[in-house]
Amino acid sequence: MSLFRTKDLDQMIRDSQHDSSGLKRSLGALDLTLLGIGAIVGTGIFVLTGTGALLAGPGLSLAFLLAAVACGFAALCYAELASSVPVSGSVYTYSYATMGEFIAWMIGWDLVLEYGLAASTVAVGWSGYFQSLLAGFSIHIPAVLSAAPGALPGLTTWFNLPAFIILLIITALLSIGIRESAKVNNILVFIKIGVVVLFIVVGANYVQPANWKPFLPFGYEGVFNAAAVVFFAFIGFDAVASAAEEVKRPARDLPIGIIASLGICSLLYVIVASIMTGIVPYEKFLGVDSPVSLALKYAGQNWVAGFVDMGAIIGMTTVILVMSYGQTRVLFAMSRDGLLPKKLSSVHPRFATPFFATWASGILFAFISALVPLSTLAELVNIGTLMAFCLISIAVLVMRKTRPDLHRPFRCPGVPYVPIAAICFCSFLMFHLQKTTWIAFGCWLLIGLVAYFAYARKRSLLHPK
After folding, report:
1. Which of 18-22, 336-340, 362-366, 380-384 is least confident?
2. Number of structural domains found in the chain
3. Of the N and C termini of the chain, which has fewer Cβ atoms inside 10 Å?
């Protein structure tokens, strides 16, 4: 039964109230909302809309809506636990308090992969847009430094230098303080939201309703498959929960940040998908990495397309920032519990950040982004996130049963129906992912299983001395 030993929930809450972690409380509701938007609006809206359109046709807006509903149910569960247990680590921490150490370790192991590969994948996309921007000024990076080995057929490539550099810049920013990182994120978020709104205002004038017919060329199965892929577009709002110990008023601000960021982004995604497929016939998106920009060029608005390309670069920058941030806080929480080396939870005396963890993970995933073609790994990130959403929903059900007396500043409505709906929706999307994704995910969990029994279990703070 030691596999399912749980942390003392009351002690966890007391520790967070006394700021015993050494982290600085400097974030408010607006910061958290913009943090969530910063993580969500990026690759999904600027890149994956093209892939989704090929799978669902004009029904792409329904695919985004379906993914948003699945995330919405999970977000309500996140909001309850984040306000009740304002501790770093997100679903890892909640699982540790409700379902036990082994489940917590496995989901923490899953989150480390999810956040790290998400940051690396987006960095590769950022590199592509950045090189395209440089090419507009007749500046070209040598081919050998433009992509990972084997990423570009017919070209000899060794190292993706732009992806490597942007991840190191983000790592440096995160290492000097969350307040400074949040300021940069807030500015960039306002810029990229402005770019998205510009696309909506301009693009709406060029919509041809005939392009929406047939609305579901591949039936509802196409919508379901597209939803499983574009789900990547919503990843990020859960990273807001990782900031719990750096929020001024976590009981009030965390639910606002989680729900508001998801709601705003869902609305933007559905509108953009509808306009984009209304301007361009969905077949035209084959092999296109910048579908939103393509739609504007198709409409003859090249000057707006240039702004969108710049917005894509800014949008991806904030995604990398928030994903990298979320990963370091999960590592921090797991290390503090003894499951990972203690060095990963050491806090810098001046910057009040997990300095070593930030740089260790940043350098590792910077090299991964530079050396590994990650275009096929979006689904692997998706399956990890969907699994986390299922567990957060189970945690709400378990805690309502085991701790009915717990003070809940925000209560998930419709329990048990909302958590059950979240589990059903997320499981449904998981089963629409490819077989190879399940195999790769299983291999990563198997490695985590070995790591737990070989290292973490006996070093846990809960292990009998």
Report:
1. 18-22
2. 1
3. C
Instruction: Please indicate, yes or no, if residue 20 is contained in any of the structural domains.
Output: no
**For residue 149, is the peptide bond before it cis, meaning its omega torsion is within 30 degrees of 0?**
no
* DSSP secondary structure letters along 280-336: S-GGGGTT-S-HHHHHHHHTT-HHHHHHHHHHHHHHHHHHHHHHHHHHHHHHHHHHH
Q: Which residue do the tokens 């904030």 mark?
A: 318
Determine the Cα–Cα distance for residues 191 and 266; give it in Å rounded to an integer.
18
* Angstrom distance (rounded) from CA 297 to CA 377: 29
For residue 31, the one-letter residue type is D
Structure tokens at 121: 């994948």
- Per the structure, the complete domain to which residue 420 belongs is given by 29-459
Residues 89/333, Cβ–Cβ less than 8 Å: yes
State the helix-helix crossing angle for 101-136 and 378-402, rounded to 10 degrees. 140
CATH code (residue 453): 1.20.1740.10
Q: What interhelical angle do 417-430 and 378-402 show, nearest 10?
A: 160
Write the CB contacts of 392 (distance below 8 Å, at least 6 apart in sequence).
Answer: 74, 77, 78, 81, 91, 94, 238, 422
Q: CA-to-CA distance for 152 and 143, rounded, in angstroms? A: 9
Rounded Cα distance, 451 and 352, in Å: 29
pLDDT (mean) for 350-358:
85
Residues whose CB is less than 8 angstroms from the CB of residue 238 and which lie 6 or more positions away in sequence, other chains included:
74, 78, 90, 91, 258, 326, 385, 388, 389, 392
Q: Is 322 part of any domain?
A: yes
Please report the DSSP string for 60-81 in residue order. Answer: HHHHHHHHHHHHHHHHHHHHHH
13 within some domain: no
CB 29 within 8 A of CB 256: yes
Gyration radius of the chain's alpha carbons: 21
CA distances from 182 to 78, 116, 220 (A): 21, 19, 40
Q: How far is CA 244 from CA 103, 129, 248, in A?
A: 21, 33, 9
CA dihedral 55, 60, 62, 65 (to 10 degrees): 110
Alpha helices (runs of H) in 137-282, residue ranges in sequence order? 161-175, 178-203, 219-230, 250-279
CA 174 vs CA 91, 329, 339, 459: distances in Å? 21, 11, 23, 28
Residue type, 310: M
Stated pTM of the model? 0.81
Which segment, 172-181, 243-252, 377-386, 414-423, is predicted with the most confidence on average? 414-423
